[in-house]
Amino acid sequence: MAPARGSNVLRETWIVFNRAMRLSLRNPMWSILMLSQPLMYLFLFGPLLKPITAQISEGATTNAYQVFIPGLIVQLGMFGAMFVGFGLIAEYRAGVIEADRVTPASRIALMAGRVLRDVVVLVAQSVLLLVAALPLGLRAPWKGVLLSLVIVALLGATFASLSYSVALITKSEDALAPLLNGIAMPLLLLSGILLPMQIGPTWLQRLSDISPLKHVVNGVRAMFRGEVTSSPALWGLFWVVLLTVVGLAVGARTFRKESA
C-alpha cells in the first residue's frame, strides 16, 4: 500500500529542514549577526529605561526589562525572519530552486522545511536573549516566557513565509532590499517595540492602533507581568495567529505557483 500523501509531506518537510539546518550550522554568521542587534539594545539601551519604568508602564511594573524584553522578543521574531528571502534568492541563482522543481517533493514541504529551520533558529536566539537578560534583572513568570517563545515561533513563521514569497516573485536583491526596509521601518516605529506607544501623543497612539504588531507587543508585555489571560494577552495571541495563517497561506500559494 502506498504511504499517505500527508506522511509524505511531513517526511519531505523534514528532509528540507535537515538540509537547511545543516547549511545554517555550517555558516552561523548570519544567525549571530541577527542576534547581535537585540543584544546591543539590551545592554546599551535597556539601562536607560530603569529611571522611567513606572512612567512608561503606567505603574504596571517597576522592572524595566519586563517592558523592554518583550519588545526585543517581537523584534527578533519579526526582523530575524523578514530578511531570510535573500538566502532563497542566492539558492535561486545557484540553481537549487530549479533542481527542486524537477523533484516530486511537495511544494508546501519545500517552503515548510525552510520556515521550520528559521523558526528553530529564532527560538534558540530568543532563549539566549532571555538568558542574557537574567543577570540584568529580568524577572517573569515561566508561563509568560513560554507563551512569548510560542509567539516568536509564530511571528518567525509568518515573516519567513512572506519573505520567501516576495523573494520568489522579485528574484532580485535590488528589488527585495528596499521593499523590506520600506516595510520594516514603519512596523518598528508604530509597534512600540522600544517604548510603549501609550507614552506618545494621542494622534500617534491612534495611528499605531492600525499595526497588529502593537497589539502583539502589548500582549507579550502582559504575559511577562503574569497576566496571561488578560485582554491585551488574548488580543496579542489573536493577532499573531491571524498573521501566521495569512503569512503561511500566501507563502504556500507563491511556492506552488513559482516552483511549479
UniProtKB/TrEMBL annotation:
Residues annotated as transmembrane: 29-49, 69-94, 115-138, 144-167, 179-199, 233-252
GO biological process, one term: response to antibiotic
GO cellular component, one term: ATP-binding cassette (ABC) transporter complex
Subcellular location: Cell membrane; Membrane
MF terms (GO), sorted A to Z: ABC-type transporter activity
Membrane disposition: Multi-pass membrane protein
Keyword Cell membrane carried by entry: yes
Entries under Pfam families matching the protein: ABC2_membrane
PROSITE patterns on file: ABC_TM2
Residue ranges annotated for the ABC transmembrane type-2 domain, each copy included: 29-258
UniProt keywords, alphabetically: Antibiotic resistance, Cell membrane, Membrane, Transmembrane, Transmembrane helix, Transport
PANTHER family: NODULATION PROTEIN J (PTHR43229:SF2)
Family: Belongs to the ABC-2 integral membrane protein family.
Protein name as catalogued: Transport permease protein
Species whose genome carries this gene: Kribbella albertanoniae
